[in-house]
Write a structure and sequence with these properties.
Helix content: 10-25%
Strand order of the largest sheet: 21-26-22-23-24-25
Number of strands: 26
Largest sheet: 6 strands, antiparallel
Order of helices and strands: EEEEEEEEEEEEEEEEEEHEEHHEEEEEHE
Structural class: mainly beta
Shape: globular
Number of domains: 3
Radius of gyration: 19 Å
CATH architecture of the largest domain: Alpha-Beta Complex
Length: 273
């Protein structure tokens, strides 16, 4: 069985890359698009009320298989998730990024001045291509960014736990992976992306990373059914969760006791990445 979250097929139409692998009535080449808004939802159905499964951040690529009625059906290149995206949020031929947003979030401006109207509020790990520079401002398709809030592609954060800790207080958002709202696996993914690591989207996929451990330390991952947290020490975790509706740090023992009392059971795995 194929994983529908990661397999670009719908109603008998599949990406040509799946020919000979996944049966379909028809195979078709995809065409590359690039996210031109600060963030946009990847939805289960082609509707603004459809469940948000994932998000695209500015500059991320999306391979489109089909487009109709203002919705593009395709696959996010960065984490492989399949779904529907508002076609208006996607631009034409992608450019190669030179920098990533390293601040938790930052404004870009219409001109190289902090007094200029902002063009958008961009989240950590958004991708931009530098087109020029004036003083401390870097020109991109999204506007002028303060140079200190960007990092060259390949310049990774040294501590992914410290990155995750910068999200404390961020609201919980199902399917989110932006600095204005994200879910448990989105937090883990964004922290690892900033540290130069790849990471799948959902917690069950993340549970296949690394190796099992029994004695926990900072940076290890704790899994429950449908949930993931990250150890900040030998005793505490950080996680985006629906109980607090925010990213919080708390003792692992308290989270375990609460989850058991609410019918969620014991942790299912401890992994070191």
């Amino acid at each position: 069985m194929f994983d529908p979250r990661l397999t670009l097929i719908r109603d008998g139409l599949a990406a040509r890359s799946l020919e000979g692998i996944i049966p379909a009535d028809r195979y078709q080449d995809t065409w590359p698009r690039q996210t031109v808004v600060a963030s946009t939802a990847v939805r289960r159905e082609p509707s603004s009320s459809g469940e948000q499964l994932d998000q695209l951040l500015f500059g991320e690529r999306f391979e489109v298989l089909d487009e109709a009625d203002g919705w593009a059906f395709g696959q996010a290149v960065r984490d492989g998730y399949v779904g529907y995206v508002d076609a208006a949020a996607l631009g034409g031929s992608p450019t190669t990024p030179t920098h990533t947003v390293r601040a938790l979030r930052t404004y870009a401006f219409s001109t190289p001045s902090i007094k200029a109207p902002p063009t958008g509020l961009y989240s950590m790990n958004a991708l931009v291509a530098a087109e020029g520079q004036e003083g401390r401002f870097v020109k991109t398709a999204g506007g002028w960014f303060v140079e200190e809030h960007l990092a060259p592609i390949g310049q990774a954060e040294p501590d992914y736990v410290a990155v995750a800790e910068r999200f404390v207080g961020t609201p919980y958002q199902w399917g989110g992976r932006e600095s204005l709202g994200l879910d448990c696996s989105g937090l883990v993914q964004q922290a690892l992306y900033a540290s130069g690591r790849t990471c799948p989207r959902d917690s069950d996929q993340q549970a296949a990373m690394g190796e099992p451990v029994e004695t926990l330390r900072r940076g290890d991952l704790v899994f429950w059914r449908g949930h993931v947290a990250m150890m900040t020490s030998e005793t505490d975790i950080i996680h985006a969760n629906a109980y607090y509706m925010a990213v919080v740090v708390e003792p692992l023992a308290e989270a375990v006791a609460r989850t058991i009392s609410r019918g969620g059971g014991e942790p299912t795995a401890f992994r070191r990445i």
